[in-house]
Amino acid sequence: MATQELQEQPRRNNPESRRGPGSVSPGISYDLSASAASAVRRTTGLLRRHKLLIGTVIVVGTGLAVLAAFRMTPLYTAETLIMVEHRKNTVLNFEGVVSDMTPDISALQSEVAILKSPAFAEKVVAKLKLMNDPEFNASLRPPPPGWVAALNPRNWIPDSWKQTGAVPLSPEEIERNHLTSVVNEVLDNTSVRPQGRSYVIAVSFDSEDPRKASLIANTMADLYLVDQLDEKFKASKRATQWLEERLADLRREAQTTGDAVEKYRTQHGLTTSSVNESTVVGQQLSQLNADYILARTKRQEAETKLRDVTAMANSPRGASAVGDVLGSPLIQALREREVDLQRQIADATNRYGNRHPMLQALQSQLRDLQGQIKSDVGKIVSNLSNEVELAKGREQGLKASLDQAEAKQNEQQQATVGLRTLERDATTAQAMYESLLTRSQQIAAQTDMRQPDARVVSEASIPLDPSQPNRKLIVLLALVASGTLGVLLAMLRERADGGFRSPHQFELATGVRSLGIVPRIPRFGGSPASYVVDKPVSAFAESMQNLRTSLLLANPDGRHRVILFSSSVPGEGKSSVAAAFARTCANAGQRTILVDCDLRRKCLHEMLGMANTLGLSEVLAGTAALEDAIQVDPRTGLHVISAGHGRSLPQDALGSSGMHQLLSRLSVNYDRVVLDSPPVLAVSEGKLLAALADQTVFIVRWGLTKRGTAMAGLKEVVEAGGEVVGVLFSQVDTRRHAQYEFPDSGRYHGYRRYYAN
Description:
The protein has 757 residues and is an alpha/beta fold. The chain has helices at 2-7, 33-36, 39-49, 51-71, 105-115, 118-128, 146-151, 159-162, 171-188, 210-239, 241-267, 280-313, 319-326, 329-352, 357-448, 471-495, 503-510, 528-534, 539-554, 574-587, 604-608, 616-621, 626-629, 650-654, 657-669, 685-692, 707-719, 734-737; strands at residues 76-84, 190-194, 200-207, 454-458, 514-519, 562-567, 592-596, 630-632, 639-641, 672-676, 695-701, 724-732. 57% of the residues lie in helices and 9% in strands.
């Protein structure tokens, strides 16, 4: 992709005229990417190159989705089916009051709107007391954890901003707002939809509790049917409203008159239920009258008897008459005893005379007996007097009771007249009430035959599995979405890649030939200058050998001995490559000297483990001889001139004739004169050295140096008169480089078994 992208760019600053004898002819093309890299391979390479990014996005995205899915509260959906009846089931003709609904699309949509209306949802809330359910009433829920509340964007707004322009609400309005929020929660969890072209409406409800979901869905269906019946009954009530009101009035009137009859009857002791039956008072009066007559008769008999006994007791006959009247056995016995004593006295008088003691004794007995008879007669008379008094008292008591009964009977007779009046009123009211009630029942019979225009086809059962969230679907969608996002990010990253990924790209963009790539050494491999000696058969050492071979082919006659290593910006590995290349040449038996020309950032002596007492600055300043400034690398025999510690400006020292003479002298004494140059875009000394060197190797850091920066640095070298022999890519990740579809892709990495890294 990057190769095709650069093919359209014009080749600027093409130094074709400056190529040496080993330069490749511009008429020969080695661009194999168009034929070798198909679209599938390019896409595969892109995925391989950015597999870490894509994998990270997939893992993070899918992990977050899994975490969110398992933290989401599961919702259970219960569904009930209601069929709107399209057949008329009216038994009696009562169309003047109520008419059947003929279902059509509009009617079904209207019924759906009713089921989704806030008024209907409010009935459900009231019936099931959902105001007390924390699932729907947010004010009853416990506060969320602190970190969850911190993630809510609404909590980022200051409270003072939220209260700006707020209207104060009364407690009733606040309560109404709470009810509205609960109703809205219920509506949000409710789904009402027609089932295709049928007359069936599906009502489903989502809840955290499966039983609650089933209960609410079934309650909605029941309330819907009740609501239909209510509407029908309201129509009937409007037609019979006056009759119902009048019937209620008559019912109250009949009840009032009936209660008045019972109350009047109770107050006046009227316990009979018909005219032919006697009252309790009449029965008592008859009994008292009979008892009074009997008592009066007995009293008269006692008085007569007392009068007769008293008269007889005062008569000449005295006790004998009383005995005869009363028939008392005691009196009669005493009387017989008296007669016997009188006979005995008469006999004694005739026999003994008047003074005889026996006679006197008999006379004394007679007197005692007569006194006893008189005493007994007095007792009898006294008893008769008592009986007369008792008879009089009983007679008077019965007379008083009889008078009271007669007075009470008179009161009851008068009360009966009022009772009859009340009974007639009650009968009239009851008759009117029953008449209107019969009429009302006739109309109600027609209304009762009505049925709702819908019926429940299938009640909502308790769902066993949650409907939301669908964790498998969420994970699958997250996997697909995160994978797509990862690929898009990889493509954006590829498009936004500002660096060169292959010398082939640089060659297509600039026309400068490629000198190969320099693999990145392992993390703990040490410095490149040491690694090339320690690992002579490593990929890094092979890249230095390849560079040496390329330079030999570019200079077969050996005239170009001064080689400058340059780059655009610091950090591209220019000094490390120069030191490693110089050691490689020295190790191959060539007389090689390495000169540190970066007088600002001196680092070559540290890479090689040498001192920086005397160096290039002292030689150019004339304070030290060349032989004294040259140091020998004990491992390879490489001669090295460090940067030194000069006080003159670097551009003055490197641009002087002394520098030119020094290079001429070194080119005579050595086969390879390797110069380490400062970056050309950072300081100006790099351009001076490019003009002095026979060949310039331009270093570009793989994938990191911006394309514009690298091309600008190359332009500076060319415009300064430098002979750019080729471009060398440093610090190449061979594993990632092998994933690109370039002609040199897989170099070193694809043949890593040949190297001992």
